[in-house]
Design brief:
It is built from 3 helices and no strands. By secondary structure, it is an all-alpha fold. The chain folds into 2 domains: 40 residues; 60 residues, no CATH class. Helix 2 packs across helix 3. It is flat, with a radius of gyration of 19 Å.
Length: 102
Amino acid sequence: MRRHSSRLSTRFRSPWRSCSSNELNTSAGMVVFSSTLQSSIPEHVRGRVFTLFDVTWSAARLLSLAVGAVLVDRIGIRPVYWIGGTLLSVQVRSALATRGRS
């Protein structure tokens, strides 16, 4: 039993590492974005801007879940994952292409 457990953990080590690094990058990206937004918004409207940003962010997350659920019902889970992966790939390529530009 111990041998099987070891194989299992070795098999999934890389995807777990990848997921955790993706979460770290996403969190770090949000910190940088929020800091940039905070430093560029005048103090007297900063609360309103961050409230609007938070409401918009939350609404978009809920909308994406609803759209994803409808898509899964209509076309299945695999195509939805392919669509998500393609969109992520486009986003990464776009970010890398514009890196260093101001």
